[in-house]
Amino acid sequence: MKYSLSQIISDTRIWTGHNREDRQLIAIGDPYTLSLDELIRSKVEIAARNVLLEAPASLLMPGHPIHTQLIWQDCQGRGIAMLPLPEDFLRLLSVRLSDWRRPARIISDDHPASRWQSSPFAGVRGNPARPVAVITATPAGRVAALYSSKAGPSVRVLQAQYVPTPRITDGFIRLPETLYPEVVARIAHLTMQSYQSDPICGQHCD
Closest Cα to residue 135, out of 76, 93, 187, 191? Predict the structure, then answer.
């Protein structure tokens, strides 16, 4: 769902107890009002990103589909498949290849289990019965390394969903409706952390 910055600022002010709206002061550039609004605005993307990273995947489904083509290592259609991730990628929710029995377990490349994927022992690596997707960075961008597939050239992506990085565009930002209250609370928390040190807003803290 799309939320306007003006709505987010208003809801954050209510959450923090600073819901003073004087249109005359805003019109003449009241420094307190404008400084607090800018402080809130600067926290929106940071707060949204943190909430989306921490939220249970079930609250983020359905995600955005990934349509990029698989890049195979080793033999064509066999072994490790690389799924290039979109430029606005934030979090992978689900990925499943057509020869897998279930969606992959998703881990980062600094997870201890990521090292197991290069093991010479097949029983340790991911396989169609218990697949693993490792999110990693390459010179060409981030990819999901998918372990593993043995079904040949017919293998395709059955399902791949992700969460895009939240960005403010034309005064709006897209957020899951169920997580909007948590995002506002996180914005308020970050705002109040910075509030005391703000040279203008700090004058109004007492």
Answer: 93
